[in-house]
Amino acid sequence: MSEAAKPNRPQFRNINITQIVGYRLPLAGIISILHRISGLLMFLLLPFILFMLDKSLISESSFEYFKGFTSNWFVKLVILALSWAYLHHFCAGIRHLVMDNHIGLDKDSARKSAAGVLIVSVPLALIVALKLFGAF
Fold this sequence. Notes:
By secondary structure, this protein is mostly helical.
């Protein structure tokens, strides 16, 4: 068949790194990516958390040291990020478990469940932030 007679078919190519900013994901896709990021964050920081726990349990003086260490605003932000990661990962994990049972797979239900993950996890993270920074 000649080149002129071939029908023009759309070409589907992988997205380039320069096109990521302009690419518009649905809410369910954003929640899925955040689920992966939160899992990675928890996994990578787990040795650090266990090290801090181990050192804080050695003696009362080491506990007081880490108590003072965690009063720094930057450390509180790291703790808040880990808290958000846990809360988001937990809520999104429940969503994925429900979807694994073939519940809520249609487009409208997936959008609602993705919004539900944000509606639950973000206020919980805000409550942790308020407690962490001494609002109550």
